[in-house]
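WARN  no MSA supplied for this record, continuing single-sequence
INFO  ligand: MD3
INFO  echoing inputs
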Amino acid sequence: MTADLFADQTPAWQEPICPGATVLRGLALAEAPAILSAIEDITRRAPFRQMDTPGGFRMSVAMSNCGPLGWVSDRQGYRYAAWDPATGEGWPEMPEGLRALARHAAASAGFAGFAPDACLINRYAAGARMSLHQDRDEQDLRAPIVSISLGLPALFLFGGPTRKDPARRIPLTHGDVVVWGGPARLHFHGVAPLKAGEHPATGPFRINLTLRQAN
Ligand code: MD3
Ligand code: FE
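INFO  complex generated
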């Protein structure tokens, strides 16, 4: 008998973090050049900008969006909007390859039928960070969020359901994809200040895309 030794194991490139959260190491590596060139087109039409928080702070991360909806923040609050407040135009289209990659990643992590309508594009320069927060601006919290990391490495901080839960530090590097859903969907998370560096694909930046089902 030749039992499949690996039949009920997760492949090595899939790292479960906790129920609902899985790192898919390097899943976006092959598509990274196409994604980065799409981001250049997108951000010519919807330029990276540092948004203001409702509390009056300017975010250190620069952001843009593609897809039918985009995440925006200003003194009025956080929300998804169909128009870029900086230009009054609709957000650029979500590239089909990006949508398909996110759908495939979600399915690999156990979330079939993922249909993102929003893609937030975060750009970190040296020192930029994201403090611990929850993502709760989306209508249906049963849908996961798929994140794609490109360029300089970062330490991702992954906490629990309350702000005081200890945060694990998870290194995310060029090409890593993470799927966050189910019981992990409302966990607190953030990104430690980016270390200065130079990456062949992105120069002095880290780029993170989060694909979401916002509506
Ligand atoms: C865990 N972005 O844009 S992506 C964000 O690297 C955000 O730019 C980070 O947090 C970044 O909101 C982290 C990973 C991520 C995204 C959503 C999550 C982790 C998550 C939702 C729930 C739990
Ligand atoms: Fe988040």
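Residues 18-212 form a domain with the Jelly Rolls fold (CATH 2.60.120.590).
INFO  checksum written, moving to next record
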